[in-house]
Amino acid sequence: MAKLYFNKAIVYEDEAMATDENATENYGRAYDYYKKAFVVSREALGVEHSKTVRYRGILGQPTYNWFSERRNENVDKLVAEQVLGTA
Question: What is the pTM of this model?
Fold first, then answer.
């Protein structure tokens, strides 16, 4: 599932880069799918797995960090919850 979400995110990201029309909306969709890929990978493979680290790195890029901040989401908190078992 993580790979499927990742690939879907790439499609939206490519659409966002190809045109200014709906770019923010497409980056937002890409963010949602990258986040889903990260969460599924984290749960299935663990926080230190290379794919999980890759997905987390993408979410840390300025474009996706902007969405995280705008939505009051904290991807680092998701990592801490997994590692420390806290809510």
Answer: 0.84
Domain residue limits at 74? 2-84
Q: How many domains does the chain have?
A: 1
Q: How far apart are CA 5 and CA 66, in angstroms?
A: 20
Read off the pLDDT of residues 9-53 as tens digits, 9 standing for 90 and up.
999 999 999 988 889 999 999 999 999 999 999 999 998 999 999
Q: What sign has the CA pseudo-torsion 33, 34, 39, 40?
A: positive
CA distance 59 to 83: 18
